[in-house]
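ESCALATION

Customer reports they have been waiting on this structure for their group meeting. Please prioritize. Original submission:
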Amino acid sequence: MNGSGFGPASVVRWNGSDRTTAHISATQLTAAIPASDLAATGSASITVFTPAPGGGTSNATTFAINNPAPAITGLSPSSAPAASGTFTLTVNGSGFVNGSKVRWNGSDRTTFFVSATQLTATIDSGDVANAGTAPVTVFNVAPGGGTSPASTFTITNAAPGTPTLSPNNVIAGSGALTLTVDGTGFTSASKVRWNGQDRTTTFESATRLTAAISAADVAAAGTANVLVFTPAPGGGTSPAAVFTVANPLPAVSALSPSTTPAHGAAFTLTVTGSNFVQASIVRWNGLDRPTTFVNSGQLTAAVTAADILTEGTADVTVYSPAPGGGISGSQAFTIGTPATTPTDQLVALTGPTGQPVGRSRLVFRATTGNLSGVSAVSFVIRRVSDGKYWNGATGAWQADVFANGGADSDGDLTWTYEVTGRPAGCSSPRRSKSRCGRPSAAFRTRAR
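Update from on-call: job pushed to the front of the queue and completed.
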């Protein structure tokens, strides 16, 4: 206190109550003011009292007690996952008073005074519903007081958990669909990704998303990796779940043609049915045949002459590979003589008389009846020395079966056929007939 007329016995009074006073000089005193005098904002009347004789009480001077300016040094916690719910925030700092308010994005939150260096506040679930940041301040009312500088609270996206898919498979070509993805940690910013590409996503809840999957996504058989991506802050990419696009099980309804004579030429078989795919294969008695995909209801396949050497039936099926797929039911293909064709006639073969020359004449004669009414013959010539077959079209022996033939234009009882080229192992006229490749002795003839 600065003034005049202060004596050694002068006492400083705070709101009329003496305070411990030190006499410095006739113009100055000091007094000890306890913290309790400054606990609340307001004002105090300060006087100096000097005892008798003389003395008295000085005029009063007003002392203002203001709130301090608050400051924040730290938040605990300083971040939380989005949609994590209501929690208690601890604010550490200085200049806090009973009545200080914690503010979240500028709005007061229910605040509890712990000490001049610590406050706690209740943060509602709605405050952390979405990822982002929130400025946190402390406000002290006047007199004095004010608003502290802001500290940043971060609301992070949760890391999405492993998804469960419904459905988790479809048939290839089945069209667009809505995919339900269940899991954890989803937010309104989460995206369903199909093989790494975002798909239009609808947020249902923190545990469910739905996504629009296009027809192009499921057009072909295979598998797709499906995951959930949530952006920063926090967030990340979930583990992948596998979605299967399966080939349908093929079905065969008809063959065209459905019959052909034995020993006929190679031909193209048309297979009609359903659920065919690009990778479908026509099988002939269980063996793959070169196949052309026409559309989902039709395939064509190359059938060789060797496939129809023997009269009977062949099982025709269609196979589609995994995923899905499988083998269709079978359709019977008939290998035989049409009803309008004369019955095959067994004939005897008269071969050459042992000459190993480069040309041999084969003569066919009917053993019963005759060849009248038969306009053509087909037959196989097999050389016994090495098992090779005669190819009349090229004039050479070959390993593969070849159906020879010709027309019987004169209607005679015999029909001749010439084989040219020296048989293997015949270097001398003295070789035996078997070593010179004499053909087999019996064949069948048929109409063409």
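Sent to customer with the following note: Residues 41 and 65 are 5 Å apart (CA to CA).
Escalation resolved.
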